[in-house]
Amino acid sequence: MKLWSGRFSKNTSQLMDDFNSSIRFDCRLYKYDIEGSIAHAKMLGECGIISQDESNLICLTLEKILIDIENGEVEFDVESEDIHMNIEKILISRIGDVGKKLHTGRSRNDQVALDIRMYLKDELNEIKDMLVELIAVLVKTAEDNLDTIMPGYTHLQRAQPITFAHHLMAYVQMFHRDYGRLTDCFKRLNVMPLGSGALAGTTYALDRDFVASELGFESITENSLDAVSDRDFVLELNSNLAIIMMHLSRFCEEIILWCSHEFSFIELDDAYSTGSSIMPQKKNPDVAELVRGKTGRVYGNLMSLLTMMKGLPLAYNKDMQEDKEAIFDSIDTVKLCMPIFTKMVSTMTVRNDKMLSAAKGGFTNATDVADYLVKKGIPFRDSHHIIGRLVSYCIENNKNIEDLSLNVLKSFSDKFEQDVYDEICLETCIKQRNLPGGPAPKSVKASINKIKQSYNIE
Predict the structure, then answer these.
(1) 411 given a catalytic annotation
(2) Is 9 a domain residue?
(3) Mean of the pLDDT values across residues 348-364?
(4) Of 260, 276, 392, 411, which one is the catalytic site residue?
(5) Domain count, the chain
(6) For 349, which DSSP code?
(7) Domain that residue 440 falls in
(8) pTM of this prediction?
(9) Is 261 a catalytic residue?
(10) Of the residues 104, 133, 162, the one at which a domain ends
């Protein structure tokens, strides 16, 4: 018999039970449902709504149920619909009528809002830890490559010389922002909704602050209608996860390019690569490709959540049951991708020679040659035009700018002197870009130190 069956004259069909039930996916909330119920039962006892003995019995039994679930000794029932009803039904089966008092002053609407917040707080903190691990790996790799010269790109065309450390630290900044977004999201997660009832609170004199303190919440919700119908925190977290996956996917795209024969900037470790069933020479970047592909799942989940919520009147609607599979999958996907991506990056081999060779091609120092003439008194727009013609000459004659004789350079501008060769060598080009945030090793090292201090990275 269902716990809500009093108003009904016949049983729901099996088809309805299967369609309506959420236990197959919300079973993962069991720990939070029990912890929330224990805090609620303690509060009911403290407030004299149930006796202290009843409160103690409920709490002790719930603790035993938690142990039994974790030991695999409990089988959940589809007919009981969800994790909340399953736990309550097991409780009643063990202690009878006293167990029926647990739900006093509570609805499944505020109960599920509590459970999902508690679950997401823990998951969010785990993902933050994963971000710190990734940032630490990138920082270590950057420190090892402060002087590794590579071409920087715009439009996937070689643009200006930078260092591999500078490139890696660009991603560190992305993941640093991701960490900040999760930290900010946690503030809105950390609000306790229990006591809001189905939508209008309750006539019982509940001590909501007691429950919030027991469960480690910073504050309580201010409006009962909003508390049971709010899923902004789910949307916000999924949005943050989508941005994390976007950053991972961008990085994966570059790794896929870098380990191709055309680039050969890196080589992935055998432990994080795969082969071909037909082509024996192949070494495929499947980790990077899968992370790139799985990004779409997290994007899709976000769109599902936004669509689910967009037309719902206040307060709770059963549509909101659909929030869990989406956010669970997004969390699972990020937690699957982050550790293996971190391992892949930490074990890859950097091909310094290939990066340097690429930086020497494509006229990456052309802007520096233009700047050289500006420092000699030529307006930048005129200098830009001169160097454009100079590059065309180099292309026609299959030469690099630094390979040209001083006489040839002077044929384009009499401002060229012998010092131009020192000014436009790649090492100088990079070292002179020593503004904060620039690619000069000194600037990158300062950026690294700032990040290390932020996360207490050794």
Answers:
(1) no
(2) no
(3) 96
(4) 276
(5) 3
(6) E
(7) 359-455
(8) 0.94
(9) no
(10) 104
